[in-house]
Amino acid sequence: MFPIRNIAILAHVDAGKTTLSERILFSAGEVRLPGDVEDGLATMDYLPEERKRGITIESGVAHFEWRKLWFNFIDTPGHVDFGAEVDMALSAVDGAVLVISAVDGVETQTLSAWKKLRSKGIRTLIFINKLDNPNCALDDTLIAIEEHLGVRPVLLSSPEFSEANSSVSQIQSELDVISGMRLVLENGKEEPQKLSANDVAQTRLNEMTKEAVEAASEYDDEILELALNGETVPPKMLLRGLFALAAADKYVLCYAGSAKQNLGVRSLMTGLSFFLPPPPKFPKKYLGEVVRLRHFSDLGEIAIFRSMAKLSHDQIPAGFAFYRLKASTLFPVEEIFPGDIYALRSQNRLALGELLTLKGNAVKREIENAEYNSLLQTRLECLRESDYHQVAESLDLLARMDPSIRIISRPEAGYWLLYTVGEVQLEVVLERLKREFGCEVHAGSPEVLWQERLTQELKPVENSFQAGPFKVSLELAAKPLPESEKDIRLSGEFLENAPHEILAGIRSALLESAQNGILGKGSLVGVEFELVRFDSECKTPIPMIKKACSDAVAKLIRPSDVVLYEPFMELSLECPAEYAGMLSGDILAREGKIVGVNGDGVMHSFVAELPLRKLFGYATAVRSGCKGRAQYSLKLLDYRKVRN
After folding, report:
1. What pLDDT digit, counting tens, does each position of 233-271 carry?
2. CA dihedral of residues 617, 619, 625, 628 (deg, nearest 10)
3. Gap between the Cα atoms of 343 and 324, Å rounded
4. DSSP letter string over 607-638?
5. Do the Cβ atoms of 505 and 456 come closer than 8 Å?
6. Contacts (Cβ under 8 Å, ≥6 apart) of 487
7. CA dist., res. 327 & res. 88, Å (int)
8. Is 196 buried (19+), middle (13-18) or exposed (0-12) by CB count in 10 A?
9. Could you tell me if residue 484 is left (phi over 0), alpha (psi between -120 and 50 degrees) or otherwise beta?
10. Mean pLDDT of the chain
């Protein structure tokens, strides 16, 4: 077995992330022909919903060999509705590739992905894509990387263009610093070609190499000494210096090319083999970690699993079977290795983020960054009463597969409340319910989830609840926290010596009450509850305690005690100049405010702030109004007080 590297690929929507993934698989010989996202043929996008929209929804997993290394890479979603997929993918990787479009530059989700990678300490290489586009700007993109990401780019590969222009028909080849060669396309793949001494491209390659040496010299004294003396730095020494540079915060290694034309891909792959760290050392007591859950109509539930142990076939715990996963096909494996990623089938129901011991026992743990902003609430009902159980199980599985989806069941009324990040995620859930699980449901119109906050401090109220020999009596007060905080806190002298199970019941009841809200339009946030007094029999059932606390909240907080805050979104929109007037007018008609404008006469861009309630159907409106030639992204900006 070769040494293992796990990588993720991140980008803003439409930067070419999945296309790059396809070309990597093709260059490594894993697929005979690379699929195109535009044609709905991408190997990594296996869901029909992905191929329909041309976006990645679930993180695709693929494997390839390169330079005697075994790579697992995860093609993460770029759409903001599926940010939870990105977080889970990053929990299992050793490095990442951040794809940046040379046409659009550093965009909102580019910056968000970069910050996330930095916060997690994940070593990252950058691939500057779309240099086959006549509107590309490599130098401007390098400047944007330095300005917006706060690091100095070190360019290790760059395309060669004809003198005429840089259109798709005129891109010729690639210059590669590490090999010191030109890479030319042969049968769709890049092959190295030596440069002649009088080749004009040698000057450009020498400049790139000199810049790489200067940057690496800051991390390697031998390189610094050779550079100061004007001597040539041997390739192995340069690699050593660049490896140290890649681990630092001042620079970032960059590769430039065209994923669609398969230029620059080979250089990037070689960079991944040289500059990423090996997997960490794992605790010897664990079998591994569940990093993803999937469901296939013919295979059932599958876990994507990062192994932490080396086990032969006869050592694998009973009831477990490991496979390689390619699209929706499983290939059995006879042994597993630490750091590697497999598909796992189990007789037991597994949970996201779950650790398994060597005996196959589950160890529950909290998932990092598992808090996502649910912005929409949709009511779901069965079309047939006999389908209720199947729909309930299917919704439960979808929620376990994606931690940003939340389900609240109302069995007494026969419906569910589905909470999603946005419209695209909602549409995908409904489509998968029908196609994958055969569930026919009626979905109501999605409603925006607002936030509720207290207007004032509330004096204590008393509440008691009695059933048979048991009685619970309490006094509860509340006060608002500063607007910058949204926690639900609990204070009171009783808490210092309260039994753990009683305290857990009280906290659970208060959190559930806050989550349900007072006005039914969203959650109550930014509140400190004070338990002034609490009395109960020592064996009082926890459900009774929760009931008493929930009723106390209902008595304490009246509708007149809360004020609503609605979510505002930041819209980043780019379109051909001829559509700019129409789109800016549409933004204003949706109660939006344009806060930034840019353009060059060919393309126009806006940054605007809009209330989420005015953005229903926006994707369809933009697509039809601009004939599919505009692109946009949304992110939650803040919550703003509703003015009466």
Report:
1. 999 999 999 999 999 999 999 999 999 999 999 999 999
2. -160
3. 6
4. EEEEEGGG-TTHHHHHHHHTTT--EEEEEEEE
5. no
6. 481, 525, 526
7. 19
8. exposed
9. alpha
10. 87
User: How many of the other CB atoms lie within 10 Å of CB of 490?
Assistant: 17
Question: Percent of the chain having pLDDT more than 90?
Answer: 58
- Alpha-carbon distance 100 to 153, whole Å? 13
Return the pLDDT at 629.
75
Instruction: Dig out the tokens for 36 from the structure.
Output: 């195109």
Q: Which of 255, 55, 26 is nearest to 138 (CA)?
A: 255
**For the chain, how far is it from start to end, CA to CA, in angstroms?**
67
Question: What is the C-alpha to C-alpha distance for residues 421 and 86, in angstroms, rounded to an integer?
Answer: 14
Q: How many helices (H) and strands (E) does the chain have?
A: 15, 32
**In angstroms, rounded to a whole number, what is the distance separating the alpha carbons of residues 575 and 626?**
8
Which of the listed ranges 72-81, 131-140, 160-169, 617-626 does the model predict with the highest average pLDDT? 131-140
Which among 35, 24, 39 has a CA at the least distance from the CA of 74?
24
What type of residue sits at position 166? S
- Give the Cα separation of 568 and 374 in Å (integer): 13
Q: Look-up: residue for tokens 């702030």?
A: 609
Residue 412 has pLDDT above 60, yes or no: yes
Is this prediction's pTM over 0.85? Answer: no
Position 544 scores a pLDDT of 94
Do the bridges between strand 4-11 and strand 95-101 make them parallel or antiparallel, or are there none, so unpaired? parallel
